[in-house]
Design goal:
Blueprint (H helix, E strand, L loop, with lengths): L10 H10 L7 H7 L6 H13 L7 H12 L14 H13 L1 H15 L5 H14 L8 E2 L8 E2 H4 L4 E3 H15 L7 H7 E2 L8 E2 L12 E3 L34 E2 L6 E5 L2 E5 L5 E2 L1
Parallel strand pairs: 3-6
Antiparallel strand pairs: 1-2, 4-5, 7-10, 8-9
Helix pairs in contact: 3-6, 5-6, 5-9, 6-9
Length: about 280
């Protein structure tokens, strides 16, 4: 069991803290006239999924809204629409952070620019630092990839850090969560300690003083967009949901297919090249 007196770092808690510093939302009348302001809980969770999975998703609205609420309140760990427990998603994100760091960092930079209020960033960093510091299940030797160089530092080193680059810091904390905290429900006691309800069916309100325990001065900077480490024309598939069958063990095969009298059109830029005879087409 989780120690109820100790914060527990998990995806729901991380997501809930991000929601506390989202950009100012449009008034109800403005949203009625112009549609969504793009800052709903579901919008921001979609953005977080994109950071991790590098794929857009278009889930069924009502199901995803319920999933989002349950994920934030640490009653749900993920599934078809929130793929944080999918093995191939975890492995791909880990590979991006360790081997294609600029790509993952750029996705986090896009997330920060789109959703977060810059004036509240210091509180968020302090809240996460204190949560990590007080989480007794994170040992002093656990690594966090929070450096813009892509290098990791330990929890013990993090406890004394004063110069923090925001996007690498958030990416490193998220990476730790995705790899080491698959059971989001373990954060439920923390959520109940930090949020209160005036009535059984009213909205939960954030009442915690988390972050106030970090008294050292912090120099928080923003990291500029990085040069991508893969070709710009690399195709990234888009999925409405993720399946465990779509996966890590897929192997590449060469198929020889014989076609009688084919005509092949190969388009490069604005020029079409017609090839009227091919004996063997290798796919």
């Amino acid at each position: 069991m989780v120690n109820n007196n100790s914060p527990y770092l998990c995806g729901g808690i991380f997501f809930a803290l991000l929601l506390e510093i989202r950009k100012q939302r449009s008034k109800a009348r403005d949203k009625f006239l112009g549609g969504s302001d793009g800052l709903s809980d579901t919008d921001i969770l979609k953005g977080l999924i994109y950071v991790v999975a590098n794929q857009e998703n278009a889930p069924y609205a009502e199901s995803f809204k319920k999933n989002t609420s349950e994920y934030k309140s640490c009653r749900y760990s993920g599934g078809a629409y929130i793929p944080f427990k999918k093995t191939h998603v975890i492995n791909s994100f880990d590979n991006d952070v360790k081997n294609k760091y600029p790509n993952a960092l750029n996705r986090m930079s896009e997330f920060v620019n789109k959703y977060l209020d810059e004036s509240k960033i210091e509180w968020l960093v302090k809240a996460l630092l204190e949560t990590i510091d007080l989480d007794t299940r994170i040992s002093g030797t656990h690594n966090f990839y929070i450096q813009s160089s892509g290098q990791a530092i330990t929890k013990a080193e993090l406890a004394t850090l004063t110069n923090i680059e925001l996007q690498p810091f958030l990416l490193g904390v998220l990476h730790y969560i995705i790899l080491h905290r698959p059971d989001n429900k373990l954060g439920r006691p923390t959520y109940e300690a930090w949020y209160t309800q005036s009535t059984e069916y009213s909205e939960w309100e954030f009442t915690s003083g988390i972050g106030s325990g970090i008294n050292r001065p912090l120099n928080i900077t923003f990291t500029p967009m990085q040069e991508e480490s893969t070709p710009e024309d690399e195709e990234i598939p888009e999925f409405s949901e993720w399946s465990d069958e779509a996966t890590d063990d897929t192997t590449s095969k060469t198929i020889n297919q014989f076609i009688n009298n084919p005509t092949i059109v190969n388009q490069r830029g604005k020029t079409n090249i017609h090839i009227n005879h091919v004996d063997t087409l290798k796919l």
